[in-house]
Amino acid sequence: MSANPIHLINIRKMNLSDLDDVYYLENEVYQYPWSKKIIQDCIMQQYDCYVAMKEFYLIGYVIFQVISIETHILNLTVKEAYRRNGLANEFLEIVISESNIRKSNSIILETRLNNYPAINLYKKHHFYQIGIRKDYYQSKNEKREDALVYRKDLI
User: Fold this and answer.
1) E strands, 55-127, where?
2) How is the chain split into domains, by residue range?
3) Closest CA relative to residue 71, chosen from 144, 155, 152
4) pLDDT tens digits along 52-85
5) CA-to-CA distance for 149 and 51, rounded, in angstroms?
6) DSSP string, 17-65
7) What is the pTM for the complete model shown?
8) CA-CA distance, 95 to 42, in Å (whole number)?
């Protein structure tokens, strides 16, 4: 039995009142986090933004954008204590559902080359690698790290 059952988690639309908590989690999870301004802009520009709440605690979020016939997952983050409990899967299901409703033909995303748990999750959802973005991620010593680009076809 999971220590953090998914059925006790509420997923809802993100709003500006979530900004501080999202930014806090972003900084907790990533060595090179998004700025608070980037997150705020995503909310204000009406990107698709969802948060996962356990009681009053924010434990994850997803930010994506449906542009014409393509959806781009920009950020999918789950607090470490709640990983491998189906939350990222739930977020992907929301992205897929919203993309289908809005007639998107495909979903794309980038991930670090060594993010094996995410890569396995994306493959489970029938994403496949379509390329590499050179120097996409910030890395140690002012170097950059490549990203794998994945795609899922919806039609």
Assistant:
1) 57-67, 70-78, 106-112
2) 6-153
3) 152
4) 999 999 999 999 999 989 999 999 999 999 999 9
5) 24
6) GGHHHHHHHHHHH-SSPPPHHHHHHHHHTT-EEEEEEETTEEEEEEEEE
7) 0.92
8) 15
Enter the DSSP assignment of 1: -
CATH of domain 6-153: 3.40.630.30
Cα 13 to Cα 9, 10, 49, 131, distances in angstroms: 13, 10, 6, 31
Contact 52, 81 (CB under 8 A): no
CA separation for the pair 12, 84 (Å, rounded): 20
Q: How far is CA 143 from CA 51, 113, 116, 134, 146, in A?
A: 31, 15, 21, 11, 10
pLDDT at site 7: 65
Q: Which amino acid is present at 137?
A: Y
Q: How far apart are CA 27 and CA 97, in angstroms?
A: 28
Owner of token pair 């995410």:
118
**CA–CA distance, 81 with 52 (Å, rounded to integer):** 13
Q: Which residue has the tokens 């607090």?
A: 79
Pick the closest to residue 31 from 66, 64, 63, 77 (CA basis). Answer: 77
Q: What is the Cα–Cα distance from 59 to 28, expressed in whole angstroms?
A: 11
